[in-house]
């Protein structure tokens, strides 16, 4: 059987049956889109458990009553929302630099690894943010945040090197 050239938007070097396959950085973007709302959902659970009901008419007014892990979940939600555009810019840059320009498998591996590392760091960041109760855990949270930013810088470096 003869394999046809891929006609997907990223001009990947895969057979035609893989044209619907997305690169790993795209899957990480999708996963992060869902992950952004996990802390917000936990915040809603905190409100429901501690106040007996969740006011869906004016949900933002309830932020003032948050305490403990509910307040930290809300902060983790906003922090993840703030870092999402930075990661998305890195993914767009790496998709162009690596996949559109067909830079090679070495760059693909780096882009895939960095994207997965960012996703793992953000999951860890959210967990540590919500459960931390000490200065040591708060310092760990800051280290994780810094590492996640360095991963984004790494995505831009890979994109630049591949282009």
Task: Give a brief outline of the structure.
The chain is 70% helix and 0% strand. It has helices spanning 24-35, 38-51, 68-100, 105-131, 135-162.
List unreliable stretches of 5+ residues.
1-12
- Helix and strand string, N-terminal first? HHHHH
Beta strand count: 0
Distance between the termini: 33 Å
Strand content: under 5%
Structural class: mainly alpha
Shape: elongated
- This entry's quaternary arrangement is single chain
State Rg: 19 Å
Largest sheet: none
Please report the number of helical segments: 5
Classify the helix fraction into a percent range: 55-70%
Q: Give the mean pLDDT.
A: 86
Overview of the structural elements:
It is a single chain. The protein has 163 residues and is mainly alpha-helical. The radius of gyration is 19 Å and the shape is elongated. It is 70% helix and 0% strand. Mean pLDDT is 86; it is low at 1-12.
